[in-house]
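Entry 14. Ran structure prediction on the chain below.
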Amino acid sequence: MTSLMHTLWVYVVALSFSVASTANHAQHKFYLSVSKLNYNQSEEAFQLVTRVFIDDLELALKTRYGVALGLDTEAEQKVLAQSTIDRYLNSMLSLRVNGLEVALDFVGYTYEADQVLLLVEFKRPDTSPVARVEFRNRLLTDVFDEQQNLVHLNVLTFKKSRVLSRELDTFTWELSHP
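Output, C-alpha cells:
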C-alpha cells in the first residue's frame, strides 16, 4: 500500500469512527480505538488520550476480571471502575523511550456520547533528548480479533500515525533530530 493510500485509509477510518460514534453502538460493525500520544517537553511526559466504545471496554473488563462495572450508568461503581481500568491499561499499554520503560499513570476517564476517553500520562525519569519511541497498544485485542487501534504520535515537531492490531501491536519510531 502506498504511503498516500495508507494516509487516506487512516483518514477514512477515523472519519468513520467519528460518524459511527453518533450512531447506536450496538450497530457498529468494526472495533476501533483512537489514541493521541503527545510529548509535553516542559513536563518531560507523554500524555495519552484514548477513545473506545463504552460497551467494548465494559466487555473487556468483565471478560478479563469478572466484574460488571455499569460504566456510564447510575449503577456505576466509580472507585472499582477506576482501579479496574487502571489495572487493564497497565496490562495492555506500554511505552519505552530511548530503550527505557516509562511508568504508566492512569489519570482518569470521562464519557462522550457512547465512548469513554481514557487519560494517561507517562512521566519520563530522565531528560535526555527523545530519539526512539516504542508504544505498545493491545487495548481490546484480547476480546475482539478484528480490533484496530489507531495511534497518532506527536513528539516536538514530528508526527506519525499507525494502525495497530492483535498481530502488530507495537509502534516503534526513530526520530531524527536536526
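Strands lie at 32-40, 45-53, 93-97, 100-102, 104-112, 115-123, 132-137, 148-155, 158-165, 170-174. Will compare against last week's run tomorrow.
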